[in-house]
User: Fold this.
Amino acid sequence: MAAIASPDPISLSEINNFTGELFKVGSRRTPLLSMVGGLTGGKLINSPVFQTQLSAAPTLGAVTPGTEGATPTYFGETRTSTIDAVQIWNRGVKLTYSALAAKGYLTSQAMESGTAAFEGSNPINDELAFQLEELLSVIAREVEAEFFDATFNDGTDGNPREMRGLNEWLSVSNGAAVYDHDSNNDGTGDNQALDFDAIAETLKLMYDNGAPMSNPIVFCSPAAALDLNQNLVKSGSVQMAVLPRDRNVAGVNIDSIITPFGNIGLAVDEHVTDNKAFIVDMSFLDVVFLNIPGKGGVFVEDTDNDDAAAISKRVYMEIGLDKGPAQYHAKINGVA
Assistant:
């Protein structure tokens, strides 16, 4: 099983039709994308770049008592902003008329024979619909990976626009809480297994940042989730435990971890950047799409075949992740 080497167009000889139920194996999970609305949710915007406006909490100094009958002490505070972009996905599927029509033609392997097979029972009744569904699955996983690891480009340098991934966005320079979990706790030591202390210390940094922490969820790799679970079990404390999956967000099961800063969610995601874990407040994340006039955010349309004996369709969208202020989220470095 692999991607078709020459899909422009997909011909009959490149389609394997078999009998029996079709099982779609392999990972198709996109927890973060699902939680923020998927490819059919979110909000439409009218610019390929968008801003997050910030107003920091004023710095407190010594309090000077007011004097009776005096004029007021005047106050003012500046604002700042950050920029992000939507990223283009422009992918297509093209089938020859023969490939589109021959849904009853079974590959010779299905008959365990070296000769061409004849008409039989094939669970795929619409090859074009099947290929489009698989394409959307690929796109969703690509978007999920970019949510974590994309490197920002606004397109003004002539290169394609690219969204700003959480790994880049959540940095000390942007004001995010960043915890170094390596053996030296400074980014110079060896990576370590994710544990309860790393989660609690990172939440403390978020609290110090003034993060509302209304719906924080830890996103980590499967290996890191297993390490964290083992650490909590070995602690032997009922105050440090992964609770059963009592929440479900957009079809994603969410575990809970009891911490000094309240119960927070835990989501396993194989697309999380290597050696990292993230704590993101889902209350401030939203998927955004450029609103294409007459089309919307995500659409499928016919494309020009240059008079070829084939049918083709395009999936098009420009998508980004509105993350809110970096100070509302956190990143954990040095995770083994």
